[in-house]
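## retry 2 of 3
previous attempt timed out at serialization; input unchanged, resubmitting
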Amino acid sequence: MRYIFLLGGLLGFTLAAGTAFWMQRGPDRVFLDGAIGCLVGALLFRWLWTVLLAGLHDTLVARQRAAVAEAKLNQPEILPLKS
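## retry succeeded, writing output
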């Protein structure tokens, strides 16, 4: 998760600072916008990563349950011996 947090921060900083620079703001404002973009981007990527992992986990659990149910359906029935 650390790398996702860092990637989101880098992307947020680059996007916000680049936009501020393109709008011809002063250097102090460019770095302030970049810092705010870094924080927002990092938190947004962290949230998205959590949602992605939760969805992946739910999918894997559902597939495992379906496989177990399929195996139970295809299992041969063992009849008791009559004495």
